[in-house]
Every structure is written in structure tokens, then in C-alpha cells.
Specification:
The protein is of the alpha+beta class. It contains 5 helices and 10 strands; from the N terminus they run ββββαββββαβαβαα. The two termini are 19 Å apart. The model has no long low-confidence stretch (mean pLDDT 91). The protein is globular and about 50 Å long. Strands 1, 2, 3, 4, 5, 6, 7, 8, 9 and 10 form a 10-stranded mixed β-sheet that branches.
């Protein structure tokens, strides 16, 4: 997968990957180009609620959505991954059915009750230098990849999300082999 962009794909941690942050992770790639790659860890819920993030900014909100740890970089960045029929001018369309936004307008929409059908809130990101991600994918037991889909992104969480996504990716690899 080195020649084409991984934007809109999932990275599924290989069972042998032993990295404190990324063991048993499912990561959605939101940017992949010549300057590097950026992803959001999907399956690491925190103990913080969206309303708590907003309260720090002096905003009252009753939203009880759990915030996920999106990665070890830029922990103050807030990103919303959501279905693609809910957007603003700063929304990144990842692929059919999925988008990501990180602008204040989207937060204001949620506060006003204008929520997408499916969404998750994240703080932090994962990033890779140019060529680093493709090297990790191609030279070791680090990552498996598959095109992201809404059920894999939104229907499960935590360890179960990794297990089911790994199973789905493995099935696709075997089906493509034969």
C-alpha cells in the first residue's frame, strides 16, 4: 500500500505489536501524503466526558459522550469523527460514509443539539514522518490495513473493537488471497 494514500483506511495493530500506546489499537488515518501521516486511535476511551472538555472552556453542556484518547501527539486537539452527511467547510471527507472535523462550528452544532447520527470525540492524534508508516506496514509485525467502514469505526469500542476489526481484516486478506 505504499503507492496510494491510506487516508480513510484503518490500521489494525498486529497481535505481535508491543508498543505501550498502540498495542491492540485501531487507528483511522485522516491524512496521508508526502509530508507524513496523521491518524486517530479509535478504541481507547478515556474517563472524560465531552461536557467536561467544554466546562474547561466555560461552556455548559449536558452531552455525556465519552472522549477517546486519539493519540499521544497534540493532546489538546479535539477532533470529531462522524458520518459524512454532517459537515462544515473544514470537514475532511475520509471516504464514503466517514468524515472528521476539528473546528469550533461543529462543537457549537453539537451543543445546540445538531448531532450527527454517528460520532466520536477525540483528543490527541497519532502521526508519522514521511515514509515512516509505509515502512512500519511493509517491514514488520506492526500494522494490518483495511478500508474503513462505519460499523468498524462506530459500532464497537475498546478491546472488542480491536478483536472484531482484526477478524474482519484477516477475513479480507484470506478472501483476497484466494
Amino acid at each position: 500500500m505504499t503507492a496510494k494514500s491510506l487516508k480513510g483506511h484503518l490500521l489494525i495493530a498486529h497481535p505481535k505489536l508491543q508498543d505501550r500506546m498502540f498495542t491492540r489499537s485501531v487507528i483511522l488515518i485522516v491524512e496521508d501524503n508526502r509530508v507524513g501521516s496523521v491518524g486517530i486511535v479509535l478504541n481507547k476511551p478515556s474517563n472524560i466526558y465531552f461536557r467536561d472538555l467544554l466546562r474547561v472552556k466555560g461552556i455548559d453542556c449536558l452531552n455525556d459522550k465519552i472522549v477517546h484518547c486519539g493519540g499521544p501527539v497534540n493532546g489538546h486537539a479535539c477532533t470529531i469523527v462522524h458520518n459524512d452527511d454532517w459537515y462544515s467547510s473544514n470537514t475532511y471527507l475520509l471516504q464514503r460514509g466517514l468524515a472528521a472535523s476539528s473546528d469550533d462550528l461543529m462543537v457549537e452544532k453539537i451543543i445546540a443539539g445538531n448531532e450527527p447520527e454517528n460520532y466520536r470525540v477525540f483528543t490527541g492524534l497519532a502521526n508519522w514522518a514521511p515514509g515512516q508508516l509505509s515502512t512500519e506496514i511493509n517491514t514488520g509485525a506492526s500494522w494490518l490495513t483495511m478500508l474503513a467502514d462505519r460499523p468498524s469505526v462506530f459500532n464497537l469500542n475498546g478491546e472488542k473493537q480491536w478483536e472484531k476489526t482484526l477478524e474482519k481484516c484477516s477475513r479480507q486478506i484470506v478472501d483476497n488471497w484466494f
